[in-house]
Design brief:
Shape: elongated
CATH architecture of the largest domain: Roll
Strand content: 25-35%
Order of helices and strands: HEHHEEEEEEEEH
CATH class of the largest domain: Mainly Beta
Number of helices: 4
Strand order of the largest sheet: 1-2-3-4
Number of strands: 9
């Protein structure tokens, strides 16, 4: 059990619950395979916005278009690198817990939120191992949603990951604790 996670999760437990495991997600900057398209788009966007801003500034030196270009550069920089720092910041303030009754995902930013999943009603839990002892424990299947665009042909399908624990170490032991607790909750 992680001391820091226990300190944050314990107040969320009911008096009848017993905390069996606590942990935290992978810390630091994390680059995933699915980040490549967005990062490349952010790079192209930033390059174009910088070129456009420089051109406007050189020709007109008008404040409004130059400021608009600066905002576009910031948007591109966020897509290219800034979102990795934001993701790291959010994961540093996220805590996981497993009690004898439920799973808890506590996020302190952008606002305090608690996600609880009943062990008795939880569908099959899966473990995807990463590295030596890390991995992702998934509590529900990924959800594919259709994002509307302009016109019916411009709709696209986006895969969103359901509730999960993303652990740098101890994934297999946490998975075993969850499976035992799930079995006990169903009996």
């Amino acid at each position: 059990m992680d001391f820091e996670a226990t300190r944050h999760i314990q107040p969320e437990m009911a008096t009848t619950e017993r905390l069996m495991w606590s942990g935290r997600p992978v810390q630091g900057l994390r680059f995933r395979r699915e980040d490549v398209p967005t990062a490349l788009f952010g790079l192209a966007w930033t390059g174009f916005a910088a070129w456009w801003t420089w051109s406007v500034w050189q020709e007109e030196a008008d404040l409004i278009p130059t400021m608009m270009g600066g905002m576009m550069i910031l948007i591109g920089l966020h897509q290219f690198v800034g979102r990795f720092f934001l993701d790291s910041y959010i994961r540093a303030r996220t805590f996981y817990g497993v009690s004898d009754q439920r799973m808890v995902i506590l996020k302190l930013v952008p606002a305090r939120s608690v996600e609880s999943l009943s062990l008795a009603e939880l569908p099959d839990v899966t473990l995807e191992t990463e590295g030596i002892d890390g991995g992702v424990i998934q509590f529900s299947p990924d959800v594919t949603v259709t994002v509307p665009g302009r016109g019916t042909r411009r709709r696209r399908r986006v895969r969103r990951r359901g509730p999960h624990f993303e652990l740098e170490s101890g994934a297999r032991s946490a998975y075993e604790i969850i499976r035992r607790a799930q079995k006990d909750a169903r009996d």
